[in-house]
Design goal:
InterPro entries: Aminopep_P_N (IPR007865), Creatin/AminoP/Spt16_N (IPR029149), Creatinase/aminopeptidase-like (IPR036005), Pept_M24 (IPR000994), X-Pro_dipept-like (IPR052433). It is a single chain. The chain is an alpha+beta fold. It is 34% helix and 15% strand. The protein has 13 helices and 16 strands.
């Protein structure tokens, strides 16, 4: 891995939080992701399942974590199962985790090779009453591929039909949404790498540069700072492309006078950052562009102040909508009649700002978090309002990542990334 090893104490804490919520005499199993084929002998780069990483720090394919806090013997309470390495694998694929190295990474003493899993699991099932299965219940999830986790669940249900079944996901949704200080430091590091990429970019952008050249500059800076690259598929949208919310072609030439919406960020150690900035191709905003830009910035700043313990996500978005409505009235994009006659299910401001303002972030860009429950300290959220005006040929979105504090305003992990229009112009023309 490119990143520096994370202290195993983090994963020890994470497991304690999870097992504290388990029912008596129950087992939980977590699987690595598959390596997905492309065709012939080609595969996609491996990306670890975030749940097993969160609980163990193991960042390797064909790995299984088993937790059994009420096991009859101490060495059965936490167990890792890993693909057995050998000299052939070391030559062709590189060194895999040894049992000792797995302990250093995870803090788990009991490590088996994968071929022992079914035998050990069978013994654990004779002691246990309940199995926690790990299903994907994220509110944005649309999974069509049968994952390694899903195959395991199907097999287990057929093999052990007499056991009770419980769900890991509700526990993970709660504990993963509240970050440990070590996790906040890792997200901060990802944000700092993102800052380096953005600062590299500003003097580089000129009329006629292509969106993919901008993408190349960013990924160069990210990887040279120990990131695997982008935390998510980058959006580099010049001109009217910015009005396509998930524009990812990144293949157009950037024209003088246009704006570029950059929704781009680095990952670090599997933790995401999530930044959006909008910059002028020619290094200067027009008067109209700057007026819209400053309106979006004002909404972002006001929205950020509302992220506090006890805030409900749904009510928060209603309040942000009121601020955005005021700004759109000031810009002449809405008039009072539009607001008076609006459909409450789709308020007038949604014509220009049609997406949400904030989502949880962490190991996943759209991270775990139960939206119907009040916000808590040490949750990390994006704040990303935008105004999109196809008729004027541009869209503007600004996005930072912030940590909810016990008291006071959230702590901005992107506080050092330029966002004021004047500063961006200055850096682009330096």
């Amino acid at each position: 891995m490119k990143y520096h090893q994370i202290n195993s104490a983090l994963f020890v804490k994470n497991r304690r939080k999870f097992t504290a919520e388990m029912k008596p005499n129950s087992v939980a199993v977590f699987n690595s992701n598959d390596i997905y084929p492309v065709s012939a002998d080609s595969t996609l780069p491996f990306a670890q399942h975030r749940d097993i990483f969160y609980l163990s720090g193991v960042d390797q394919e064909e790995s299984i974590l088993l937790l059994f806090p009420d096991a009859p013997y101490e060495n059965q309470k936490e167990m890792l199962f890993l693909k057995e390495t050998n000299d052939h694998i070391a030559v062709w694929e590189g060194e895999k985790l040894s049992k000792e190295r797995a302990f250093q990474v995870s803090g788990i003493r009991t490590v088996y090779w994968l071929q022992d899993f079914h035998k050990v699991l069978n013994e654990m099932m004779t002691y246990a009453d309940t199995m926690y299965i790990n299903t994907n219940e994220h509110y944005r999830a649309t999974v069509e591929t049968e994952t390694r986790e899903a195959r395991f669940v199907k097999w287990w249900k057929e093999r052990y039909p007499a056991h009770n079944v419980a769900k890991s996901n509700p526990i993970l949704q709660r504990i993963r949404s509240v970050k440990e200080s070590e996790e906040i430091d890792l997200i901060q590091h990802a944000c700092d790498i993102t800052e380096k990429g953005f600062r590299r970019l500003l003097p580089f952008v000129k009329p006629n540069v292509t969106e993919y050249e901008i993408e190349a500059e960013l990924v160069h800076e990210f990887i040279r700072n120990r990131s695997k690259g982008f935390a998510y598929t980058p959006i580099i949208a010049s001109g009217n492309n910015a009005n396509v919310l998930h524009y990812i072609e990144n293949n157009q030439q950037c024209k003088a006078g246009d704006l570029i919406l950059l929704d781009v960020a680095a990952e670090y150690a599997n933790y995401s950052s999530d930044m959006t900035r909008t910059i002028p191709v020619s290094g200067r905003f027009s008067e109209r562009q700057k007026a819209v830009y400053n309106a979006v910035l004002k909404v972002k700043n006001e929205a950020t102040k509302m992220l506090a313990p006890g805030t409900l996500w749904k009510q928060y978005h209603i309040e942000v909508g009121k601020i955005m409505t005021s700004e759109l009235l000031g810009l002449g994009l809405l008039d009072k009649a539009d607001v008076q006659n609006e459909n409450p299910e789709w308020p007038a401001y949604k014509k220009y700002f049609m997406h949400g303002t904030s989502h949880h972030m962490g190991l996943d860009t759209h991270d775990y978090g139960l939206l119907h429950e009040p916000m808590k300290a040490n949750m990390v959220f994006t704040v990303e309002p935008g105004i999109y005006i196809p008729a004027e040929g541009f869209g503007i979105r600004l996005e930072d990542n912030v940590v909810v504090q016990e008291k006071g305003e959230p702590f901005n992990l992107m506080r050092n990334i330029p966002v004021e229009a004047d500063e961006i112009e200055s850096l682009m023309n330096s």
